[in-house]
Amino acid sequence: MHVPHAEPWRVAVVGSGPSAFYTAEALFKTPDARVQVDMFDRLPVPFGLVRGGVAPDHQNIKAVTRVYDKIAANPGFRFFGNVQIGRDLQVEDLAARYHQIVYAFGCETGQKLGIPGEELRGVHSATEFVGWYNGHPDHAHRTFDLRSAKRVAIVGNGNVAMDVARILLASPDELGKTDLADHALAVLRTSSVREVILLGRRGPAQAAFSPKEIEEIAELPDTAVLVRPEEAALDALSEAWLAKDGARSQQRNVKFLQEHAGHDSPAGHKRLQCRFLVGPTELLGEHGDLQAVRVQHMELVADTDGTPRPKARDSFEEVPVDLVFKAIGYRGIPVPGVPFDQKKGIVPNLDGRVLDKVGGSALVGHYAAGWCKRGPTGLIGTNSLDAKATVDAMREDFAQGARLAPTRTDIADTLRARGVDAVTWADWQRLDAWELAEGQKRGKLRHKLPSIEAVMLVLRDLRAGASAQA
Ligand code: NAP
After folding, report:
1. Which atom in ligand 1 lies closest to the alpha carbon of residue 309?
2. Within 13 Å of residue 64, how many CA atoms lie on the same side as its CB?
3. Which residue segments constitute the domains of the chain, with CATH numbers given?
4. Which atom of ligand 1 is nearest to 113's Cα?
5. Predicted confidence (pLDDT) per residue in 437-466, tens digit
6. CA distance 176 to 170
7. pLDDT tens, residue by residue, 399-420
8. Which residues contact 6 (CB under 8 A, 6 or more apart)?
9. For ligand 1, which residues put their CB under 6 angstroms from it?
């Protein structure tokens, strides 16, 4: 769609993960438009879940940031890191300075199970563990007692569960060469974990992991993948569903799991046990310490659309474990001034147009992209199509004059006047080079600092060095 406008088209993007960058990219591709994108992040560093979520031993996935670097090189792009909406700036500040605002702040917290015992010591959310080993400043202070834990259960069997399992089972020496946080490496080196149990509430045909993720664990040295033959076998419903609606990845998962069914683990090997048709009902402990997961056995019944869903049977089991990680999905955290759907944990929207409340009417000039728009599903690339769809709506509205009417000064001046030390893209590039160089000194890919304060201290030094050289 043609977007004729004499002035630049000014857009604020809140968040700097994949969906934020794909939004900027789609905006910059608008024909004949002079677009200015200002991207805000509460952290002083960009890239959201690519930096703080993607596992450190998956550098091929993290390399997608090179694409984002190219997007950031557009002359219309500015980064404002270390700027929190709701603290340093309010939504009204943005509304007074931009034609459109896009919320792309993702889903930052883990879902709760809502069963007794969730507060026991030894029960953690995968989100916290992932943030901890990735050096995310929100999670650097967390403690995970891997030294005394031998058996660990992970609730859920999506790709986050696989990341957690792999980090627990992989060789710390190998992980130490990546950008895994120093504090996490020190703890992983003392780990006693020998067995990780994945608890899937549905069957092998509905396992949420990607085939290459389970295959990668089977390829870890001295690690066996185990499946009980009775749990690897498909029930009639799953068999019919897999044949009719199953994706190739699901067929590949079933093949892999059935090939591993009944295998024994060689002596001295660590084990990944894939359990199916077990739903946790209670976390059991003594004196506040976790001791076991009580699971209920499940059977699959067809949902209204035929999808197999779990139905509880009258049969229970206690699985003794030392730690539990809940990897049952992410959930958004509300941002002050931005409508929020408490039930779904996302920003209420219709095809990316933000609604003033759930089922309400569209708020002119406000949009959502990525996980805070559609919920925490899909791979990084999924966010590209998703962002393009939001930008289509933005172009259509902009061309029709449905946009905010910015009147105020540049946001950079406002931030300066408020004493906010915003991190620019040039600052980040200096920090990026510093992290890589510090990593090299330590025999690893990248060295991340564990707190916002530590990052800002180094950044100020780097800025001072750069201006002394100029
Ligand atoms: P996910 O793929 O949605 O998996 C969530 C898992 O938790 C499912 O097994 C689900 O079972 C289970 N679950 C949900 N609620 C439960 C409950 N109350 N009790 C027991 N089990 C429950 O979520 P995710 O692993 O957090 O991943 C989020 C997205 O990021 C996914 O699209 C994933 O592919 C992507 N990701 C990709 C990679 C990668 O490519 N390497 C890495 C990490 C994440 P049901 O299926 O029965 O609901």
Report:
1. 47
2. 20
3. 9-108+332-423 (3.40.50.720), 111-329 (3.50.50.60)
4. 18
5. 999 999 999 999 999 999 999 999 999 988
6. 11
7. 999 999 998 889 999 999 999 9
8. none
9. 58, 113, 155-161, 163, 200-202, 206, 208, 210, 213, 279, 327-330, 376-379
